Amino acid sequence: MSTFSKGTLKGCIVSALLVFGAGCSTHPNDDVIAKNVQSKVAADPATKDSAVLVTSKDGKVSLRGSVKDGATQLRRQQLAREESGVTGVDDQTAVLPEPAAAPEQAANTPTTAPAPVETPKPQPIVLPAGTTLTVTVDQALSSDKSQSGQTFQATLAQPVTVRGTTAIPKGSNVTGTVVTAKKKGKIKGEGQLALSLTSITIRGKNYPIQTGTLDSTVKGKGKRTAATTGGGAAGGALIGGLAGGGKGAGIGALVGAGAGLVGGALTGNKQIEIPAESPLTFTLSKSLTLPPGRK
Predict the structure, then answer these.
(1) In the chain, where are the structural domains located?
(2) Contact (CB, 8 A) for 216 and 193
(3) Does the domain at residues 125-290 carry the CATH identifier 3.40.50.300?
(4) What's the confidence (pLDDT) of residue 177?
């Protein structure tokens, strides 16, 4: 190889190395950039308390994390742009919301929240055993035509109140049963009609009840009685006797203060008959619990 050729080759190699070195110098070291920006952010008084993560790719710096306000965010961007070799800044930081200011309180005056006032819950209404229910029967009943086990309907004739609260309003529907119905013989034997109440509907809701039995009996010549049984302390009280014989004669006697009449009549053949709309008074033999009522 000639001297010229060797010199030419050497020059080309040197030139290539210079070009390569110059080319390399144009590409920043991303790790160094990220480290330097991170250090500046940690040292600057305005940004040192913020959480930040700095990365760099091809000279473009990415900022992640959170700052307390917009001014701190702008300062971090400025520090990143000032770093040598940085070609751009992608700021993905979030500004934290400011805490709500506490309401002002009187100076040196402690405040105590008042204790919550509990509203007393309405208490159920309890009708004790011995409470009387005066009803009017919706259909005629008799020892001659009624059957034992037969159901009959009635209507409450008087409201029932407890401590000024209407527990059972007037007009409530009542259901009863014919406990015993026995036809009197023409020559001998006795006629008997016994009734009791089994349920009552109050403001659309039905409640089972237990009452004493109203028992009317006619036997022999002129011996006629009407009594109630099974009604607790007041349940065995005498209702009264049948009035003198004859068609249309009434059964009637008051049971305690304010109680109604036991309605009834004797037919010509001395059967026990209670016409429709007759008032009858029954006594609860077991207490009845109802929801809180209305004044």
Answers:
(1) 3-95, 125-290
(2) yes
(3) no
(4) 96
